[in-house]
Amino acid sequence: MKKKYLLVALLIFIISIGVTSMSMQNDTFYSIKIGEDIFKYGIDFIDHHSIHTLNYSYPHILFDSIVYLTYNFFNLNGLYILTIIFTFILGIIIFIIDYKLSSNYLFSLLFSILTLLFLKNFLTLRAQIISISIFALEYFFLQNLYNNKKKTNIIFLFLLGVLLVNTHVATYPFYLIMFLPFLITSKFRKDIILTFVLVCLCGFISFMGLDSYTYLFNTLLNTTTNYIMEHQPLVLIEHIDIIFIILLIILFFTNKKIKIELYDKLLLLGVSFMTLVSVRHSIFLILFTLIITAHFIGKYTISKESNNIKNITKKIFTLKGKVLIILLVSIISLTSFISYPKHSFIDKTIYPVNLVSYVKKNIDYKNIRIFNDINIGSYLMLNDIPVFIDSRTDLYTYSYNYKEDIFNDYIDTIYFNKYYEDIFTKYKITHIIIRKNSNLNVYLNEDDNYTVIYQDNYFVLYKKNSKKVI
């Protein structure tokens, strides 16, 4: 039996490498700096990285701390390995859940690998890489509580809630919503109600306090979701993987021979609606659909253990079988890995690596006021350059900071809803860093009030109130 689990661990580890991109992205960069702030200043609720005077509530306090410590000791190499580790942990959790629900080794292994492949685009070093695992475990313990009523499930659900609220607070309300299918179908059973009430208190076991409950609501109040791609409604034709998942769900609801629990049906309906509203919720759709599918196959088909399935499982554990399956999974992993466009930690076509090097060597960057493209703000933060805006978009909205709607001012500038000079004057901007192919660059390049002091193939740095260099 131990050999079976060792093989599972090896195969999931191989897949984890394949689905993990080497390239870092915005949220990872700001997590490093926020984690550094936590150890440097404590929980002071102050933003230390923008040109504005704003408060910050640390919505990913535990995650940011882990990321910073890893970076501090092991640099970007460590963060890459950390991403693989988190992905590996998720794969193991999915396998254990599938195996507990289906009692079939072969299909549990298959679906754990499929889940990682389907979730590939979400497996980056962001707080969600932990919260995905938490939601998978929540489903498992909720189902256990529903079916066997063991009190230990209550403890696990409470501890998971505490972990989630300190790791990825924006998803905490969804943790509570997950109870609804089980509450409804159990006809509001007392032990499930009690667990729900206890989990509702998890928000207070964090430094955010009441903000744990209002953070998502405040996010939905602002306009950031209208401009951020992952918050956009799902365009089904662009997502072949989601089409496959939806076809599975339709099969569950239309085939009379397929019988799944009512709480599973309610859950699938809920996450389907969430995905149509916002593409980022397809994480939940993929995760729960594949877990429920593995459960169904185990319960209604594989539980009978046909001779063919038994023979295939036995063949896997022969020397030849192990070599073949390791080779097959390695090929799948390699194919996934090479499909990523870049294999460097920082993509110079996305982030202004050379421009930042110039700024740090030639400009008193601590005492200038930069207007920057939102997509490079976190990289500027990583290099201790104060930013106008970054991917912590909520921070720059009035519903969050109660001071200025900086995000809207940014959007108005980029889309020319307002004259850019008015915005630059309002915020006393001295320098502008934007992409070379942006519309704003076209106008600034013709404006005598701005001088290009650095440019490369992708980015331009302007200084205000200097004669234009021809």
Describe this structure in words.
Helix 5 packs antiparallel against helix 6. The protein has 470 residues and is mainly α. Helices cover 60% and strands 4% of the residues. The protein is globular. The protein contains 21 helices and 4 strands. A hairpin with a 3-residue loop joins strand 3 and strand 4 (459-464). The longest helix has 42 residues, at 61-102. Among the domains are: 1-126 and 306-345, no CATH class; 353-464, no CATH class. Strands 1-2-4-3 form a 4-stranded mixed β-sheet.
| Helix amount | 55-70%
Global geometry: globular
Instruction: Give the ordered list of helices and strands.
Output: HHHHHHHHHHHHHHHHEHHHHEHEE
Number of distinct beta strands = 4
- Rounded to an integer, what's the Rg over CA atoms? 25 Å
Biggest beta sheet attributes: 4 strands, mixed
Number of helices: 21
Strand order in space, largest sheet:
1-2-4-3
* Average pLDDT score: 90
Q: Which residue ranges are poorly predicted, with pLDDT under 50 across at least 5 consecutive positions?
A: none
Distance between the termini: 74 Å
**Main structural class:** mainly alpha
